[in-house]
Amino acid sequence: MGKIYVGLNAEFSRSSDKPFEWAVEAAAKMGYKYFEPMIHFGRELMSEAGYFHTVSMFDDPYRIKEACDAAGLTISGLQSHGPLGRPEVHGEYIKLAIRVASEIGVPVINTDEGIKAKWTSEEEDFVLIKYTLQEAAFVAERRGVKIGLEPHAQYSRTPDGLDRIYNLVKSPSIGINFDTGNAYLCGHDVYAWLERVASRLVHLHAKDISESHSSAERGKVTGTPVGCACGEGVLDWKRIIAIVQEKCPRDIVFSVECGTPDQAAKSLEHLAALV
What we know:
It is a single chain. The chain is an alpha/beta fold. It has one domain (4-255): TIM Barrel (Alpha-Beta Barrel). Helix content is 42%, strand content 17%. It has helices spanning 20-30, 45-48, 62-71, 87-103, 122-141, 159-166, 180-185, 190-197, 211-217, 237-247, 261-274, and strands spanning 4-9, 34-36, 39-40, 55-56, 74-75, 78-83, 108-112, 146-149, 174-179, 201-206, 252-256. It has a nine-stranded parallel sheet. Strands 3-4 form a two-stranded parallel ribbon. Helix 4 (87-103) links the parallel strand 6 and strand 7.
C-alpha cells in the first residue's frame, strides 16, 4: 500500500492568462508540494507571449525543473496529451515528452488515445494506437518513465475500452492515470472503475464535477478539461482516497484539475484534511 500526496495540475491557471512560472509560484504559495506542468510540441504564440501556462519541449527542460525547484515543488508528471491513434501527430511528441521527463527526473507522462481521424475504422485505430504506444514504450522502458493512460476520448470512455488500450502493449512502462471527473461524466461508477485499475495506477487527476455540470453533460461527453473545487462537487473524496490507499501498491499523487486559483486553494484544503 502506497502513500497519497496532493498536487496541482497547471490547468488551474489557464483562465488567469499568466505564464508557466506564475502558475508554479502560485501553486507553492497555496501550500502545494507537487505540481504537474503541461508541455507542448513546437512553438505556440500565447505561451511564448506569457499569456498561457504550457511549456514548449523545444525549450531547455531545465526551465521546468528549475522553476519547480525554486518554488519547492516536486513534479508529479507531465501533462502531454495527444491522439495516440494518430502517429503523425503524437508519435514524435510522446517520445520527446518521455525524454524531457527523464532528463529532469519526472516519473510519469500522461496521455490518451485522443480524437480519432475522421476516415479510419475502429480496427484501424487500434492498430495505430498500438504502433504509437509501442514506440513510446521502447523509449520509456530504458528511462524508467511511466506512461499514464487516461480515460478521456472515444475508446477510453468505458472501463473495457481503457483496458483494451492498456492491453495493446505489454510493457512495465504503461499504467493508468485515472481521471475521476472524466470517468464520472462518461456515465460510469467512478468507484468501481477506480477499484478495477488501482493496481495499475501511476497517477490520478483529482477532478470534481459540480451538480450543474453533471446535470448538463453526464452521459453526453467523454470528459472535460477542468472541474470544480474538490469537495464542492458530486464525488466522494473520502471513498476515492480509501480505495487508492487500500488497493494501489505504489505512492500516488492526486493532481488537482480545476479551473481557477480559488478552486485550487479550496481543493487543497479539502483533500489535505482527508489524506
